Amino acid sequence: MELCEKIIKNQLFKKTLKKTKKAEKHRIFCRHGIEHLLDTARIAYILSLENSLDIDKDIIYAAALLHDCGRFKQYEDSTPHEEAGAVIARQILEQIDCEQTTAELIINAVAEHRKGHCTSNLSRIIFEADKASRMCLFCKAEKECNHSKTKKNMKIIY
To answer: How does pLDDT run across 8-67, given as a tens digit for each residue?
Structure first.
């Protein structure tokens, strides 16, 4: 998992995690720290295996690690975090010398992770895993959450 190792050691990636953590310090709802990123990665990998998608595990984890890297920008200036994240993900992937085709696939998954219409299998499983990683069913703040009932994860999928 060479790509993921480079991402988690990257200073810009670390900076985005720190900024998001600070922005969500008083957030009572789901947070977007490393736990969420890894939960998303693990679920996406399971989805890939279950659907025989043959997507490289390192690429799945890389996309999941980067999918919320623009989250702090949404708090700062209301930029949709998938848009900001695509820009930041590109910077990180360039800094770690990620191969161009792989980088574009990952950047696309970051940009599409909030959309119902995804243009690649990687985008689709990151989208699905992001939603499935939320445990709304057990959240103490679920009743105060503005997400519609259809967007909340109110069951355990197995």
So the answer is: 999 999 999 999 989 878 766 676 778 999 999 999 999 999 999 999 999 999 999 999
State which H helix or E strand residue 91 sits in. helix 81-95
Tokens of 113: 């992770």
Q: What phi, psi does 101 have (nearest 5°)? A: -65, -40
Task: Name the residue with tokens 């310090």.
Answer: 25
pLDDT tens by residue, 112-158? 988 777 899 999 999 999 888 877 566 666 666 676 767 766 677 65
* d(C-alpha 69, C-alpha 73), whole Å: 9
Helices (H), the chain: 2-9, 11-23, 34-50, 57-66, 71-77, 81-95, 100-112, 121-132
Q: How far apart are CA 107 and CA 87, in angstroms?
A: 8
Task: Catalogue all structural domains in the chain, each as residue range(s) with its CATH number.
Answer: 2-18+30-144 (1.10.3210.10)
- Write the CB contacts of 43 (distance below 8 Å, at least 6 apart in sequence): 128, 129, 132, 133
Two structure tokens written together for 106? 């990952």
With a CB cutoff of 8 Å and minimum separation 6, the contacts of 18 are none
